[in-house]
Amino acid sequence: MSRGWLVAITVWCSRRCDVGFGDEILAAGQAQRLYAHNPFRRVAICDQQSRPRWHPIWDGNPILATPADVDQGEDVQRLMNAPGCRPYIVYPFTEDTGWTFNTAFRAREHVARIYLTVDELRFGVQLQQQIGPYVLIEPYSKHDNLRWPFESWVTLIAALPDLTFVQHTHVESTRVVPGARDVMTRTFRDACGLLASARLYVRGESGMCHAAAALGIPQVTIWGGCMDWNVLGGYPKQIGILNYTGGSPCGRWHPCDHCRRAMAEISVEQVVQSIQTMLTQEGAA
Predict the structure, then answer these.
(1) Which one of 21, 111, 138, 168 is most buried, counting C-beta atoms within 10 A?
(2) Which pLDDT band, with edges at 50, 70 and 90, does 7 fall under?
(3) How far apart are CA 183 and CA 240, in angstroms?
(4) Which domain range does residue 267 map to?
(5) Cβ of 36: how many Cβ atoms within 10 Å?
(6) How does residue 1 score in pLDDT terms, banded at 50, 70 and 90?
(7) 160 by DSSP, 3-state: which?
(8) Where a domain ends, among 109, 141, 169?
(9) CB 209 within 8 A of CB 138
């Protein structure tokens, strides 16, 4: 195989492995900080060729300029953040090597804002009116190394009978934790509508954790040993349950015995205590 093909495969893998809603929320967070320093020019989030781009999670965000706005001549601040140039990743990487984290970046210093529509917000408001205050969960992750064992979720809900648990499910996650109310969400923004009315969010690290920070929702994140907490965690109102053993954070893309053990060793008692601590801090216990 030629060197050119190897480079092309590496770039393709790098882009495929860093595409997600969480990445785009982080991009909006970078834009928010940039705009705070210069509120007289909106921000255009661009790809590696400095071409403005758009993502649905940015809909309604008044500080962001669309590609059409730039085409029409608006004077903007340009921010490069796109597949292949994420600020928290050291490039290049592949699925086999996994991520190396850029330790100079701090997500908590770039808190985004998400602007939901009235209809999207109504999704959670109506549920809260029906069942009262609820704790939102989602055990599923498309990334195996970020999953806490399903059996631990079952035990967790049984250990907190005074709390009402809602699980937001989608096409990929069909396994509902016994004792949780199942609410199907069609889109990421629908899930954010449920999140916006939750008293607390509990799950492994994901794009929805960055959404919780953007919406100001308290969260307990079952972190494990894959991702770098100092880079991607530590938001206000966030408790992270880390299990950093040898090799953490490993950043592995493929399923990893190290990450499986790290998650399995996080006890239900640790998560229960963190939930109770966060609810007490927020005056909701």
Answers:
(1) 168
(2) very low
(3) 25
(4) 118-281
(5) 9
(6) very low
(7) coil
(8) 109
(9) no
